[in-house]
Design goal:
Blueprint lengths: L4 H5 L2 H7 L11 E3 L2 E4 L2 E5 L12 H14 L14 H13 L4 E5 L2 H12 L4 E6 L4 H9 L3 E5 L4 H9 L6 E7 L11 H10 L3 E5 L14 H5 L7 E5 L9 E5 L1 H10 L1 H4 L6 H16 L2 H20 L10 E7 L1 H13 L2 E2 L1 E3 L9 E6 L6 H17 L5
Parallel strand pairs: 3-12, 5-6, 5-7, 7-8, 8-9
Antiparallel strand pairs: 1-2, 2-3, 4-10, 9-10, 11-14, 13-14
Helix pairs in contact: 3-12, 4-12, 5-6, 7-8, 13-15
Length: 394
């Protein structure tokens, strides 16, 4: 038996490529706002997580350039040893104040953030309870921890109560959920989760990767949206969405963050985030705080697009956010719609199992505050034309 046998037997990707239906790892050669170039062809991006449109904001780009001039292009060391620069600590202080928490800690990627937090906190005497639809990074982090892991049905508070009631009182408990679920765009029932968690003396952690910058009066995410910032113990966020960079962070009590800082292996054994990445987040945070009109525009676009899709006859699922899925169901129809849209110059992403349950294939669309009215109408025209041609809408 050769460990590579599974690799040699895997042919699905090549088969899909040969059929011209392979949608992944598409190289983008140029990007200006929501206009991108793929294989020499101009397209409109409708799947990015650049929610506030800051990816080419002059202040943000200038901050990155200045950081390179001052610190160079890399840190070449872990935060634990030689990789910490003053910008890391400045950003952590700013994030803690922005999120109304005592302390914050940054990581090199959002994925590593969840791996570090959860594997550090979860011991053999603890129980981690998660929504069944949480992000893959949370699932993998739970596997790395020594804790007992239990799951409840998606956003089902009765099932959460049932799961919590079965956990012995002498166990440490934490409920971990996404604030905004990245495929369907629905929001966690945080009021219900907090209520159940308090009843069973459990802590609450929210992965708010897709909520920060988008939800809440000030853009502080799901907890602010529901007025539950004091009731949520840990809030995790990423920099690759509204903050238009790469990395992640966690905020919470000072003692808890200090513990994670000294036990999170994904922090200790990874190179620190680059100076340009950190400076980008600091500049983006300033824009988030001083330009609330971007968030207002984003929500205008969200309501317009969701209503327009529904009027056409599309099923937009449970979406409550700028992530608007087009529910298709059948994988082949999903790939067919994706291909037809690409031919029309619309860049979207088809999502199939295991990213979503079997038989629930969808086209994931997401919107930016700087999508123009012209771009939005071109997107809608393409969806109408392609959906009708494929018999998906009447």
């Amino acid at each position: 038996m050769d460990i590579f046998d599974k690799c040699y037997a895997f042919s699905r990707a090549e088969e899909v490529m040969a059929a011209g239906l392979y949608p992944y790892f598409t190289p983008i050669s140029e990007a200006r706002g929501n206009r991108i170039k793929v294989h020499g062809r101009d397209m409109i991006m409708v799947g990015s997580n650049n929610y506030l449109g800051l990816i080419d904001h002059p202040k943000v780009k200038q901050a990155a350039k200045e950081a390179i001039d001052r610190y160079g292009v890399a840190t070449c060391g872990s935060r634990f040893l030689t990789g910490t620069i003053d910008l890391h600590e400045i950003l952590e202080d700013r994030l803690a104040r922005f999120m109304n928490k005592e302390s914050a800690l940054t990581f090199s990627t959002g994925y590593q953030t969840n791996l570090g937090i959860i594997s550090a906190l979860g011991s053999k005497d603890d129980v981690i309870v998660t929504d069944r639809m949480v992000h893959a990074s949370i699932i993998d982090a739970c596997r790395l921890s020594f804790a007992d892991v239990r799951k409840f049905k998606h956003n089902d508070m009765k099932d959460l109560e049932k799961v919590m009631a079965e956990i012995p009182d002498d166990k440490g408990k934490i409920v971990i959920v996404d604030g905004v679920f990245s495929m369907e765009g629905d929001i966690a029932d945080l009021p219900g989760i907090v209520k159940v968690a308090k009843k069973y003396k459990a802590r609450v952690m929210v992965d708010d990767a897709h909520g920060l910058g988008v939800l809440g009066k000030h853009g502080r995410g799901t907890a602010e949206h529901f007025g539950l910032e004091k009731e949520v113990d840990l809030i995790m966020g990423t920099f690759s969405k509204s903050f238009v960079s790469i990395g992640g962070f966690v905020t919470g009590e000072k003692k808890v963050i200090s513990y994670i800082k000294h036990f999170a292996r994904s922090l200790i054994f990874s190179a620190a985030a680059t100076p340009a990445s950190v400076a980008t987040v600091l500049a983006a945070l300033e824009v988030i705080e001083t330009e609330p009109e971007r968030r207002e525009r984003l929500w205008q676009i969200t309501h317009y697009m969701r209503e327009s899709f529904q009027k056409m006859g599309y099923d937009t699922g449970p979406s409550q956010t700028p992530i608007i899925p087009i529910m298709i169901g059948d994988d082949e129809k999903g790939f067919g719609l994706w291909k037809a849209l690409r031919d029309e110059g619309i860049f979207t992403t088809p999502v199939i199992y295991p990213a979503v349950p079997k038989g629930q294939a969808l086209i994931r669309t997401s919107y930016s505050a700087n999508h123009t009215d012209e771009e939005l109408n071109l997107i809608l025209d393409a969806f109408k034309k392609c959906g009708r041609a494929l018999g998906i809408i009447p």
